[in-house]
Amino acid sequence: MFKRAAAISVHLVRPRWGRKAGASLTRCLHQTLAMAKQLQARRLNGIDHNPWVEFVRLSKEYDVVNLGQGFPDFSPPDFAVQAFQQATSGDFMLNQYTMAFGYPPLTKILASFFGKLLGQELDPLKNVLVTVGAYGALFTAFQALVDEGDEVIIIEPAFDCYEPMTLMAGGRPVFVSLRPSPAPKGQLEYSNDWQLDPTELASKFTPRTKALVLNTPNNPLGKVFSKMELELVADLCQQHDVLCISDEVYQWLVYDGHQHISIASLPGMWERTLTIGSAGKSFSATGWKVGWVMGPDNIMKHLRTVHQNSVFHCPTQAQAAVAQCFEREQQNFGQPSSYFLQLPKAMQLNRDHMIRSLQSVGLKPLVPQGSYFLIADISDFKTKMPNLPGAEDEPYDRRFAKWMIKNKGLVAIPVSIFFSQPHQKDFDHYIRFCFVKDEATLQAMDERLRKWKRELQP
């Protein structure tokens, strides 16, 4: 029908405008018809909106102290900087390709270092894959293991990439929420007050469940899962023959004597677990984008297939620098000179500083056990100023975060974005702050909060 219409149109205009006009109209109609086709793949439907874009844009438009995004604004340790400088200026062959699945010195030290922690004899060629950051490890895992119609259990609040990665692989995300237990009046709440309901968690497992995503220490909550909680997850995974994708990028950032436990170290779990880590989080160098995933060869071989047919290879020089960093840490592990002891000790002081400061204006921080982050309860503000500008259906924490950027010069991230759509309204009274910041940034935060406090006084 469209071809016939185009032909008639050309026939009608040709006597008046000549062949040139007719040809132009034909091209126009052809382009219109061609552009009517859907350009994007169906797997992108519904995942194009990213709330981070809006908050990053706002933080650039206003004079703010950025406590929203999770990156250190201080230098990596000297030994890490020196390792990177050596990698870029030393052996010229580090400018070339290395092994597709990881620079051999790096896969070797990762196998040695984490093998002891996991209680496994790791083969660098079979049990370790180096990826473009932990993000790359997650994407590779979902693409390799999740099929059309598979269900993936996601414990929320959850890092916001788990859901779209599940959807892009053709899977169906199934959500189960950690729920808070109120603290006694006048006392601070803690991230470990947020617990899974064992019955609810068990109800999420079905014959279609392929994997469960675990994040400990958790972003945004800062919760470190206890051994008892991990055993609950492990028992259900084994009972239902489900894989566990364990995102452990903050494993060295634990506070107050809490202990990070890898679920792969529990009996019966190595065989069904992928353990994901990040050099960026480990050595305060998030821009290096070096991550890894470890697991049994019968699972890892499928990740290698995705890797070799996508990125194929990660930058050699960054891998060489990370290898040197881990070699140093292995020599100093458990000693005061270990960065994996020094960093959490320093960041616990930052955390405590931020908690005290936020309380001064009526925010109610929850004390995190781990990670870069803490969340603060804004319920009192929701009661006092419920009608902040924003769309009618926009969760309150998003409107509050925008108001705080524009009026108080402080950037935080609304916690509702870490929840699935049906649960966002239930958790729209929290905002997330990053305390892994330089002392000067914390001082700038204090200055903004002192001004805010003065404005609160009658």
TrEMBL record:
Intracellular or extracellular location(s): Cytoplasm, Cytosol
GO molecular function, one term: cysteine-S-conjugate beta-lyase activity
Cytoplasm in keyword set: yes
Enzyme Commission designation: 2.6.1.64, 2.6.1.7, 4.4.1.13
Reactions catalysed, as given in the entry: L-kynurenine + 2-oxoglutarate = kynurenate + L-glutamate + H2O; 3-phenylpyruvate + L-glutamine = 2-oxoglutaramate + L-phenylalanine; an S-substituted L-cysteine + H2O = a thiol + pyruvate + NH4(+)
Pathway: Amino-acid degradation; L-kynurenine degradation; kynurenate from L-kynurenine: step 1/2
Chain ranges of the Aminotransferase class I/classII large domain: 63-443
CC cofactor: pyridoxal 5'-phosphate
GO cellular component: cytosol; mitochondrion
Entry keyword annotation includes Cytoplasm: yes
Main subcellular location of this protein, as a coarse class: cytoplasm
UniProtKB keywords: Aminotransferase, Cytoplasm, Lyase, Pyridoxal phosphate, Transferase
Similarity comment: family membership: Belongs to the class-I pyridoxal-phosphate-dependent aminotransferase family.
Function: Catalyzes the irreversible transamination of the L-tryptophan metabolite L-kynurenine to form kynurenic acid (KA), an intermediate in the tryptophan catabolic pathway which is also a broad spectrum antagonist of the three ionotropic excitatory amino acid receptors among others. Metabolizes the cysteine conjugates of certain halogenated alkenes and alkanes to form reactive metabolites. Catalyzes the beta-elimination of S-conjugates and Se-conjugates of L-(seleno)cysteine, resulting in the cleavage of the C-S or C-Se bond.
Complex formation: Homodimer.
Listed name of the protein: Kynurenine--oxoglutarate transaminase 1
